[in-house]
Amino acid sequence: MPRNTSIKSVLIIGSGPIVIGQACEFDYSGSQASLSLKEEGIEVSIINSNPATIMTDKVVADNVYLLPLTCESIEEILQKHNIDAVLPTMGGQTALNLCIEASNLGLWEKYNVKVIGVDVAAIEKTENREEFRQLMVDIGVGVATSKIANSFLEGKEAAQEIGYPLVIRPSYTLAGTGGGFVHRKEDFDAALNRGLHASPTHEVLVEQAVLGWKEFELELLRDTNDNVIIICTIENFDPMGIHTGDSITVAPGMTLSDKCYQDMRNQAILMMRSIGTFAGGCNVQFSVNPENEEIIAIEINPRVSRSSALASKATGYPIAKIAAKLAIGYNLDELQNQITKTTSAYFEPTLDYVIVKIPRFNFDKFKGANKELGLQMKAVGEVMAIGRTFIEALQKACQSMETGRAGLGADGRQWRNLDEIMDSLEHPSGDRLFHIKDAFELGVPLESIRKATRIDKWFLVQIQELVHLEQELRRYQLNNIPRDFFMTLKQKGYSDVQIAWLLGNVTEDQVYDRRKELGINRVYKMVDTCAAEFPAQTPYYYSTFEEENESISSDRKKIIVLGSGPNRIGQGIEFDYSCVHGLLAAKECGYEAIMVNCNPETVSTDFNMADKLYFEPVFWEHVREIIELEKPEGVIVQLGGQTALKMAERLEQLGVKIIGTSFENMDLAEDRGRFSDLLKELEIPYPRYGVATSAEEALQVANEVGYPVLVRPSYVLGGQGMSIVINDEDLEKAVVNLLKNLPGNHILIDHFLDRAEEAESDSICDGEEVHIIGMMEHIEPAGIHSGDSSAVLPPFGLSQAVQDKMEEYSIKLAKALNVRGLLNIQFAVKGENVYVIEANPRASRTVPFIAKAYDVPYINIATKVMLGANKLKDFTIERKLKGYAIKEPVFSFNKFPEVDKQLGPEMKSTGEAIRFIKDLQDPYFRELYNQKSMFLNAQ
Fold this sequence. Notes:
939 residues; alpha+beta; seven-stranded antiparallel beta sheet; 31 helices; nucleotide-binding; carbamoyl-phosphate synthase (glutamine-hydrolyzing) activity; carbamoyl-phosphate synthase (ammonia); CPSase_lsu_oligo; repeat
């Protein structure tokens, strides 16, 4: 049937700040859903407290409310707007929980608001572990033996009845919070207690543990006619026992028999139909016994899930966009396939390629954290790669990770201690994939690795084959590798860096030149949802090594925007926000805007956001060949964080124009020593400093500048490796550790200004004028990373003289660095003295916050300035902030209860929220301000 015309205004509930287990995939889903509804002429209102997202931008919705996700905020919006319906399925568990709370309070009924995309009863059935288990029994779907427990005694009785090993699953929690395996009776009491406290209803499911079984996910859509389609089947490389968010996943399923797959499809459809009559998206997870293919259901989520973004990017099927249209009444056969433009949305996608997702961890930020993976999610982000084969996609995913790996091994970072390797295989952490390859290289038999990991033999055979290829490659020299064998290596995903390392005594460029001589070129294939059965209209590409290239370069003038890769602490969703605005601005300036990124969670990798999308690693070899094909006017590196910035020097060497601030000036700001020399020349105060390349030099510098000192490496983001030390012994340890992890890096030793306040400015420079877009005062004192500090816009306690100096130094530095575009400067303020700590001529994590607070599209303006399309004088900038805006960091320490939560110069927060206050008497602000007083007094 056609859409429900009575729905003229919809409220979408967002997911709030980024935390482990609920990240920017919901920014993507919410943004897609909003744009989908606006296409239908529906007025869209969004509530979300996250300032770093595109979802909370005026380009996405008609009304954006940056408010706390509470029922009070919901009612405030319902009083202002005549909302017809609420869509709570795009904001993860946070949105669903808030929808239930509002329903229980009678808000939807009071304001005559219809819940669409799901019904509250369906949420209750799926989140309540006992109701879900009983429903599965009733409809004949297998489940693990389990019992519900609402008390310690009930839990003990359940464990005695089921036996060990078992799983504890708390009800109504996100990303496995509070859950875990219990292998021994001695560990049960503590685990049960943890689970009961984690559940808001004080309820857990005590369940039989099916360790070693295979795990699968299915993404489904259903319309009001009860038509159901399967969008994607995702297989976990890792067996049951590791949270799916921490697992390597593969699509389509690689090791399923057709019979098992058909059974799984039928059960998933039955499950979706059994939980309610809603129209929209659904995610179902199954476990399969590898011995006899017995299937049991793990859970069902009647909403867009973490995997929905992955499935959308994997198939080219925009799940959230279609789910939003189904929620307002459309049927699948009435909607158009967004890729082909000729087939209907009722066509199930068909893949003629393989995608691999690998999670990204940040254990380095949580010293002492338990790195073993289990039921509780610990990953902070993920990458996705597309290849013609599993192994090609796997190697490309490894190159995308931003961990310094050139692929799956063959890069000089292998482990060689057999005992440590085998322990890693039995106790999985984020590096287990690499240690499987290390084990094969040491001659460990495949069956021994299978028993240790319980990973399906098919996957292990694929990795073992790499070892055989590498042994064969070592028989050759670069000039005599047979062309067919060279082509095989590239088709197996080997980077030129890996091949150079395996051959020894040759460089990446020499390997690159040799394969070009042999005519071995990267070609690009289109992601088309239908295995080329119908022509695709959307330019969405991945690379491989074959003969036919499907990406034809146009004769338009082009700009390439380099993305920020996987989310991690220090480089999060705010950089994707910047990239999206960069694309929009480039298109407005008449350029063909081309995106290169590998993060499936983000809006920048939505296939209709750029004129052309390359879903590729932001890895030099891949970027270089895209540039050679497209021949752009230039490349924007200023918006994608450190991932993009680190390409600047090689782009410069290749003769590619860097849009905006030049490499030379970006490098000057990044090189802490040279930058301090510039400050001295400009007569701008800065802390006494020195540069060291060894522990001996560091001790000498520290004694010259005076303790306490701030120790930090050059060219890092998020305060990586920074520490404050107070004596020679601590300094020596810090420097030795830095040089071990970042060999060859210069270490900057700054005198640390204790009892100083911290502030920062963001500005735009067009080469002539400088516009200060915002100045912020931090609640926490200097010494705590700016990303972990609460920041107040505009400053609340700095004198006008201090603010004038900050403005003066910002203008001086912008002109001295010849900035074209954005510049972020961080200051230490002691009394009336202002010191510059650092300057970053690029997008910062605070620009989206300022843009949302003042309601000014600053990234759009900065990009047009970078492109030379406009000068600052061309823009009329009106700030709309009345009062103050506060950026408050959000942490995920609950995932790592064993680590030190003390904040310092290395960033630990995973996200941020925004709060508006009218004046400084606001109770929320007074509480923060009291914390500041305590911090300063403690120092």
